[in-house]
Specification:
Layout: H1 3-39, E1 49-55, E2 58-59, E3 70-71, H2 99-102, H3 106-121, H4 130-141, E4 145-148, E5 154-158, H5 167-185
Antiparallel strand pairs: 1-4, 2-3, 4-5
Amino acid sequence: MDQESWGSSRASLRITATGRKLLWASYLCSIVLLVQYLAQPACADPVLASSVGFCKPVRLEATAEEKDRSVQCCLPAPRRATKRFKLPHVHHLRVRRPAHELANDVEYVNKYNLAYERMNALPADDPRSFLRQWHTHCSFCKEAYLQRRLNNSETGYPLQLHYSWTFLPWHRMLIYFHEKILGSLIDDPDFTL
């Protein structure tokens, strides 16, 4: 090995070692910054409760022929005291399969169609009916309610779950109960969408 090639390879080893040290230093700085960031209190404004007493009609997307397509999707006042939800004992996990697999599963498609057929057949005032399920989504996601403060005064800000951190947990809750309703209508507690 000649002297020139030996010297250049030695220099490249030094650069590589220096590069590794810089890489580790950048990782360490990133971790320190992340810990500092996570230790800070949350600075987002909270989403306040809805003003259930005030609910306004909401506008839906209208077709070219329709001038106004406002609907009343407000939920009725509860007839009984609210029950605290308790998570049921889970015997096994319910697994949601990909939609492209379900399309070819004749048994699943038949259950799915039967569940929605029975849901649509329920009276409109039944909380499990498809219309009431749609009202639940519509009222909280189409700005039917206004947010209210702790002293029950309205803020004037619409309650729109799609534009806040509540989007994922609220919709996860909605799908959870929707699946439970569908499963109860076809006597299949493991039914999933």
